[in-house]
Amino acid sequence: MIYKTFGTCSRAINFEVKDGIIQSVEFVGGCDGNTQGLSKLLEGMSVDTAIERLSGINCGGKGTSCPDQLARALKAYKEQTA
């Protein structure tokens, strides 16, 4: 799935989920080292756990962050596949 982000340096997030488990995550833009590290940490994690851990993280007073945007993307994914 491709999710267009807002309020962050990253412009989009590409991710793949299989049977409720995150298979891969790729951020388009953003802080390269941080987004690569986040992506590797999330591989193999359940969608629900990722949403719980990442929701509400704020970056620089923006009211969102790359991790928060991924949580929102995963929520949208769950709604589409429900």
Structural commentary:
The chain has 3 helices and 3 strands. By secondary structure, the chain is α+β, with helices and mostly antiparallel strands. It has one domain. A hairpin with a 2-residue loop joins strand 2 and strand 3. It is globular. The mean pLDDT is 96.
Keywords:
globular; 3 strands; 43% helix; three-stranded antiparallel sheet; 82 residues; alpha+beta
Question: Could you provide a short overview of the structure?
Answer:
The protein has 82 residues and is of the alpha+beta class.
Major β-sheet, in short? 3 strands, antiparallel
- Series of secondary-structure elements, N-terminal to C-terminal: EEEHHH
- Helicity level: 40-55%
Q: C-alpha Rg, in Å?
A: 11 Å
Total helix count? 3
Q: How far apart lie the N and C ends?
A: 15 Å
> Strand percentage, roughly?
25-35%
The overall average pLDDT, rounded, is 96
Q: What is the overall shape?
A: globular
Write out the strand line-up for the largest beta sheet, numbering strands in chain order.
1-2-3
Topology, number of strands? 3
Low-confidence stretches: none
Classify the secondary structure makeup into a structural class: alpha+beta
What is the count of structural domains? Answer: 1
